[in-house]
Every structure is written in C-alpha cells, then in structure tokens.
Structure prediction request, 143 residues.
Amino acid sequence: MTTFEHLPPPSLTDAAADERTQPFWDAAKHGQLVAPKCSDCGTFRMPPGRFCPNCLGMELEYVPLPGTGTVFTCIVVHQPLHPSQADHVPYVAAAIEADGAPGIRFISNVVNCDPDSVAIGMKVQVVWHEVSDTLTLPLWAPA
Prediction:
C-alpha cells in the first residue's frame, strides 16, 4: 500500500456503487481513470445520472482518461471535523478538471505536497489510494 502525505481522514471503506457507477470503481481498482460519456451525443456525464442532461439519452459508456488535470478550485482544511481527526490536518479538498473529458470535475484531494502550495490552475496527475479490497480512490498530486 502506498503512503501519501496530507491524506484526509478516512471516511469510506466501500464504494457503495450501483450499476451506473460500478464501472468507474472497477477501473480505479486497476489504476485506470475513466469517465462516463453519453453513448448518444458524446456528452460527459458526472455523476452518471439516469438521463443525459444534453440529449436525455439513457445509455453511457466509460472512456479512459489520461490521468492528468488542473485544479479548478481548492480549500486547505486546517480544522479537524472531530478531535479524533486532528492528526489528519491540514489536507487539500479540490475540484479537478480532468484532461480528456470536457466538463468533468472530480472532487478529491491533492496529496504529496505542501497544502499551502496548491493553487487554482495547478497541473496535477492521478495517484491511487487503495483504501480496502473493494475501494481504490483517485487522489491527485502535482504533475
């Protein structure tokens, strides 16, 4: 298991996926970043709701992404939500615009850097955090 600097407090141990989201988690387990795309009009759909917001199509496919992106917005969390999480601050929560998927933003964390160095427009690349046997999370690190 890889060790990361400035990892947020643990909260998830299972993806709790459904038939529309399971392909994302299956790909993540294998170290591949993917995004859902409407099979009818090509619009990327995140989250992958039942209907495409552009054409109302119901079919989607998951397409591989290069695993790079740009910080769209971020915040450094300095205050733990609970005293038991004091060892996990500071950490960076961010929205990452994924390269190769217009309109897609992943809500995740930027790790392996000084949290105060993370800024809007920063180039990042995906790194994988295996939380459990059923959950691997995409995190982001400076590119």
Remarks:
- The mean pLDDT is 92.
- The chain is about 5% helix and 35% strand.
- The radius of gyration is 16 Å.
